[in-house]
Amino acid sequence: MTERLSDTARGTLLPPLLEAGWTVSDDGKTLSKTFEFEDFPNAFGFMTRAAIYAEKWDHHPDWTNTWNKVAVTLTTHDVGGLSALDAKLARKMDQLI
Amino acid sequence: MTERLSDTARGTLLPPLLEAGWTVSDDGKTLSKTFEFEDFPNAFGFMTRAAIYAEKWDHHPDWTNTWNKVAVTLTTHDVGGLSALDAKLARKMDQLI
Q1: ipTM for this model
Q2: Which domain of life is it from (chains A, B) (predicted)?
């Protein structure tokens, strides 16, 4: 079951993501990061790799692509905030660049 | 050479796109449309097909994907408005859904 992250879980899962360039929104409900690539094929290649995991885990980002940039926002609508799935997908995205 | 669309060209190229659901921004500089699909794989599949033409024509959309939706904005930064490339990519996208 997907659950909203407890304060304890946030304290464990979020600091490494913040260190990797993710930011948490003021209301604490979303994680965001803008990835920058050499060009469009690299940016879209990243999206394609991430899309496969998003569908596999049934957890999809809100994301915007403008040529070499991909701006990602993660949240778990079902729980009205961040869940472990957001942290998992964020970590995976960092591995896929 | 890419040139900004003349009024005459706009009168020819834009009406069929407006009929197909595209909208022109108030300042006349961008074309936008939101495509809706059955699910994420279909939405991302559309993006993948469109990405190939975007790169082939060296003309890339600004686009946002949220699960089954893809919101596209087209403009030609080099000319500060719409060019024939925007109309061409818009028509292609309509063929790729």
Answers
A1: 0.95
A2: Bacteria
